[in-house]
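Narrative of accomplishments. A recurring question from our advisory board has been how the design workflow behaves on a single, concrete structure rather than in aggregate. To address it, we present the structure tokens for one chain from the evaluation set, followed by the sequence designed for it. No filtering or post-editing was applied between the two.
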């Protein structure tokens, strides 16, 4: 790893699994969004802890504030309100701890992260992602972050709306198959099919995968995209069961995770951080490896 600390953007880690670890109630379909209703102070503290651990970026707790997920809990009419609240909480944490940190507005797949067969139609994806982009930009995020997109048509819809509305201020991160050749989306098509639509992104990445099986995907992205497009990588520690419950059993250590981050950097990533199962201590160790400033 030869990149300087200044050239690497360090994301925060998991929000939903971290809230769960701290005792918050995070049932599906709301998942981490329920904490916005029950305990917004806990959400802010998670953001603060990641900033103190050395993160350069706060990711808003908006992974499940789009209308589709909220509607399953009878709260569809509160999508804009809760999205704005999540951004306000992130901005408050940023202003208290690290005023120059960036705020990334998270947008999830419209259905299940690990079941691409549930993805809505192309037109539904366009309309619903457009709405979320608008909410997040109006609330004041610095960048739009599409996370864990697992189908070709939803990724294309997200990119189309981001190009139209966010003008280079967007990142698109994909969820790939862990087995087989690198660069294959969960629903089967090769990632290369969508790369022409991602040339105007600030960054393209891979996330929501076993942290130890991501380097080849990162290397492929770096080799296929122009140098101006940054490559992002942030992986999982643990696994999700069929009920959507996260388990730490068999998880890798923070030291192993930090080793994996170094592999991603060597493969071409310049934006790294943590996905499900990672904690502020995970990010703290990564920050120390990178030579970034850590509080305490």
């Amino acid at each position: 790893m030869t990149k300087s600390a200044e050239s690497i953007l360090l994301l925060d880690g998991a929000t939903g699994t971290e809230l769960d670890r701290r005792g918050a109630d995070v049932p599906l379909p709301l998942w981490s969004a329920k904490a916005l209703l029950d305990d917004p102070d806990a959400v802010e503290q998670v953001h603060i802890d990641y900033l103190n651990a050395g993160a350069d970026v706060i990711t808003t707790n908006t992974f499940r504030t789009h209308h589709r997920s909220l509607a399953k809990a009878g709260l569809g009419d509160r999508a804009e309100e809760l999205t704005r609240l999540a951004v306000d909480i992130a901005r408050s944490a940023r202003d208290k701890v690290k005023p120059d940190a960036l705020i990334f507005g998270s947008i999830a797949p419209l259905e299940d992260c690990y079941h691409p067969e549930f993805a809505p139609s192309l037109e539904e994806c366009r309309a619903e992602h457009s709405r979320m982009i608008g909410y997040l930009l109006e609330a004041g995020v610095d960048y739009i972050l599409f996370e864990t997109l697992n189908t070709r048509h939803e990724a294309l819809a997200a990119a189309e709306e981001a190009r139209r509305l966010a003008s280079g201020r967007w990142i698109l991160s994909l969820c790939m198959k862990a087995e087989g050749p690198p660069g294959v989306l969960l629903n089967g098509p090769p990632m290369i099919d969508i790369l022409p639509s991602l040339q105007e992104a600030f960054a393209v990445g891979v996330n929501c995968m076993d942290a130890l099986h991501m380097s080849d995907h990162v290397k492929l992205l770096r080799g296929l995209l122009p140098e101006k497009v940054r490559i992002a990588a942030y992986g999982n520690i643990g696994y999700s069961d069929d009920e959507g419950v996260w388990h730490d059993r068999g998880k890798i250590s923070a030291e192993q995770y930090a080793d994996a981050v170094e592999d991603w950097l060597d493969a071409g990533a310049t934006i790294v951080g943590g996905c499900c199962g990672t904690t502020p201590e995970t990010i703290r160790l990564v920050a120390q490896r990178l030579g970034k400033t850590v509080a305490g």
